[in-house]
């Protein structure tokens, strides 16, 4: 992990603790590749679970 990544992780932990951002925000960061699953757990205290794709409705 680069120093910049470590700084962002520390910032995100504080943001979550202060209630500035909730879990959906960090789930989005994981989906975008800006945060990994280990970082998500460090921020939220919970394992990251990828959302399940919804099947397309049948006509």
* Strand and helix order: HHH
Rg, rounded, reads 14 Å
- Mean pLDDT rating: 92
Helix content: 55-70%
Oligomer: single chain
> How many individual β-strands?
0
Q: Which structural class matches the secondary elements?
A: mainly alpha
Number of helices: 3
**Low-confidence stretches at least 5 residues in length (pLDDT < 50)?**
none
Percent of residues in β-strands: under 5%
Shape: elongated
Q: Summarize the main sheet.
A: none
Q: Cα distance, first to last residue?
A: 47 Å
Organism: Lactobacillus crispatus
Protein name: XkdX family protein
Structure in words:
This is XkdX family protein. It comes from Lactobacillus crispatus. With about 60 residues, this protein is mainly alpha-helical. The protein has a domain at about 5-45. It is about 55% helix and about 0% strand. The chain has three helices and no strands. The protein has helices at about 5-15, 25-30, 35-45. Helix 1 runs parallel beside helix 3 (about 35-45) and helix 2 (about 25-30) runs antiparallel to helix 3 (about 35-45). The chain is elongated. The model has no long low-confidence stretch (mean pLDDT about 90).
Short description:
By secondary structure, the chain is an all-alpha fold. It contains three helices and no strands. It is elongated.
